[in-house]
Design a protein that fits this description.
By secondary structure, the chain is of the alpha/beta class. The chain contains 17 helices and 24 strands.
Length: about 525
């Protein structure tokens, strides 16, 4: 009707309609993306309630209609005194929390109800989201899809980045005493979750973007973000985040534990630990000849371990035959805190460390490859810091190749995948890419970590039986970490110590130990 060709129409006003999911022209509707319709709700399934923070009742009702909620309440973020009264008459087991400027996907409520179906009422549900970056007219801009991590108490203290729609048991909200006001919704959610002891709940994450949130109205740390996106909070909001975490840390961290701001990411924190003089770290280093490697490793410990943490070194000689090695061992073991154990047996990383553990006096064990060099000051303190949180049982570190690319920064287990053991960040070296990923800038919780540099609580290591000696070369560290998790412990990897691992980038997987014997490294997958 406007006299334009189909191509001209698609390049002008038709494009504008396409961007906002409206039909672009009669006969061209095949270009309109069809949203999959959710099946109708059954009578046996209840749509959960919605809490909208900020805005007014009209805003709340419109959001509820779009997302599919029947029960909705609203409350301003700067005056939360009336919230408890509004919760009294809600009959739903769960309530979803969103901001008045959020744009939920159609049938978000249905997707949430489906995720909660047949599950305990003590479940906490999160989802992915899309962050809207808009200019002053709230129209032009761009969207950034976020792939969120599942919540854990540890992540609430160190990174937050809750995002998306948060669904909690209604009783959890009723039992929460909020501040009278918050500078942003993310701070309300952070306070709620830290106060709610979520370790007593079952957490579940929906990997679907059920909501679009405008960054300037509902700021949240992005999991993936470029420089301008990584600073969503103003100074007032950052001060409030710090105060909320400090308040909860006083009750939830061990004596000597505290939080401090993470210099790599505003809005994130590090957990730190001022330990007592009764602590001792036992450092176990297996080797076979190649004395220059082990000499450099020990020298880096002596230089950079730090004066605050007492330590001992146990050198585990797996059949060295070179005279230079023997001479160095005789000299280095004159040091009061360095001892030596020889094990003449076929290479078995697990067995070597299990045997040497019997000589250790420390309440923390640090398993260290002999081709590792500590490059930053106070490395032992950096590794000990996460232990201030009671459930942390093992701590690993970011390891870099000599070319400064990432060799290891944690292991993620993905059940059902062809390659279930994944190492996020491996081989990345571009600083702008590494800095764009929140998980690589914070003390992050992982499924497992590399025993090329892994600190473990001694008592828990003993309780689970140490390393599995059936796993002589590879996956013994992953197996150890998974058994630690089964026993109730958690695994954290820190990005803060600078550690070089001289593992060959191209050597590949060593399933039998030959590479360990012939190369400069003692393991292949670490």
């Amino acid at each position: 009707t406007n006299g334009l060709s189909a191509l001209e129409h698609l390049a002008t006003e038709g494009w504008q309609a396409f961007r906002v999911f409206r039909p672009i022209a009669i006969g061209l509707d095949r270009y309109h993306p069809e949203k999959q319709k959710a099946p109708p709700l059954t009578q046996s399934k209840k749509v959960e309630a919605l809490l909208v923070l900020g805005g007014n009742s009209l805003d709340a009702r419109q959001i509820a209609i779009k997302g599919g909620w029947n029960d909705v309440i609203d409350c301003p973020l700067d005056d939360l005194k009336a919230l408890s009264d509004k919760l009294i008459n809600l009959s739903s087991n769960h309530i979803t929390i969103c901001h008045s400027k959020d744009i939920p996907e159609v049938n978000s409520a249905h997707n949430i109800s489906e995720a909660l179906r047949d599950k305990s009422t003590r479940i906490l549900l999160t989802c992915d989201d899309v962050i809207l970056h808009q200019n002053h007219n709230n129209f032009e801009g761009y969207e950034h899809r976020q792939y969120r991590s599942a919540l854990s108490p540890w992540r609430l203290f160190t990174r937050g980045a809750i995002g998306g729609l948060l669904t909690v048991p209604t009783d959890m909200l009723r039992n929460f005493t909020p501040q009278s006001s918050y500078t942003c919704m993310e701070n309300f959610r952070l306070d709620l979750l830290l106060a709610g002891h979520i370790n007593q709940l079952t957490t579940h994450h929906l990997p679907e973007p059920l909501v679009r949130s405008p960054a300037k109205h509902n700021p949240v740390l992005p999991e993936q973000g470029w420089p301008a996106e990584r600073h969503p909070f103003d100074e007032k909001q950052l001060t409030e985040i710090n105060a909320i975490r400090q308040r909860h840390a006083e009750h939830q961290l061990l004596a000597g534990g505290h939080i401090c701001r993470n210099p790599l990411q505003p809005g994130s924190h590090n957990i730190a630990y001022t330990t007592t003089s009764n602590n001792l770290v036992s450092i176990l280093i297996p080797f076979r000849d190649q004395v220059d490697l082990t000499r450099s490793c020990v020298a880096s410990i002596q230089k950079n371990a730090g004066p605050a943490i007492p330590y001992e070194i146990i050198l585990i000689d797996n059949g060295s035959i070179e005279q230079e090695t023997t001479q160095w061992i005789e000299k280095i073991t004159c040091s009061e805190n360095i001892s030596y154990q020889r094990v003449n047996a076929p290479f078995n990383f697990s067995s070597l460390n299990n045997k040497a553990r019997l000589k250790c006096k420390g309440n923390y064990l640090l398993f260290l490859n002999n081709d590792v060099e500590l490059k930053s000051k106070n490395t032992l303190q950096d590794l000990l810091n996460p232990f201030a949180y009671p459930s942390i049982a093992a701590v690993g570190a970011k390891l870099k190749y000599p070319d400064k690319s990432i060799q290891h920064q944690g292991v993620v287990i993905i059940p059902g995948e062809r390659r279930p053991v994944l190492e996020p960040g491996k081989h990345l070296h571009q600083s702008e890419v590494i800095e764009s990923l929140l998980a690589l800038r914070t003390q992050e919780e992982f499924s497992a970590a590399s025993a090329a540099c892994l600190m473990v609580r001694s008592k828990l290591f003993d309780a689970i039986g140490g390393f599995d000696e059936e796993l002589a070369v590879v996956f013994n560290d992953v197996d150890l970490c998974l058994r630690i998790r089964e026993a109730g412990g958690r695994i954290v990897v820190s990005p803060h110590p600078e550690i070089i691992h001289h593992e060959s980038i191209s050597r590949g997987k060593d399933l039998h130990g030959e590479a360990w014997i012939t190369s400069m490294s003692i393991s292949s997958l670490r």
